[in-house]
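User: Just a sanity check before I run the rest of the batch. Below are the structure tokens for the first item. I only need the designed sequence back.
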């Protein structure tokens, strides 16, 4: 088995904080579908590891930092599959803050370009 088949990256892309868990689970199963089909890891093991990551992210995002549900976040995780088990080897979380002044300027300029009020 080559390293490219047992290592990889799970990316949610930008998503509302209220939906990161579902999107991370979908992205994980998508990234690992070939490994599951090949019998390198079970769907239960993927589900268990995703659940562990979800709980940690909840503690960090919600309990520790109070990220609001409508904030936009992005989660990227590096993983390896070894001995039939999924291991998250690295994790990065990005949060995108809303810029009210920039949003107002963009809205005003877009309306002006379109001749809207």
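Assistant: Here's the designed sequence for the first item:
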């Amino acid at each position: 088995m080559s390293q490219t088949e047992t290592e990889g990256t799970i990316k949610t892309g930008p998503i509302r904080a209220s939906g990161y868990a579902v999107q991370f689970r979908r992205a994980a199963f998508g990234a690992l579908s070939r490994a599951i089909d090949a019998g390198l890891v079970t769907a239960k093991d993927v589900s268990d590891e995703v659940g562990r990551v979800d709980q940690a992210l909840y503690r960090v995002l919600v309990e520790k930092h109070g990220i609001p549900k409508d904030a936009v976040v992005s989660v990227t995780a590096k993983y390896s599959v070894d001995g039939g088990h999924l291991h998250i080897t690295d994790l990065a979380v990005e949060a995108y803050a809303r810029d009210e002044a920039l949003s107002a300027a963009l809205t005003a300029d877009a309306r002006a370009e379109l001749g809207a009020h």
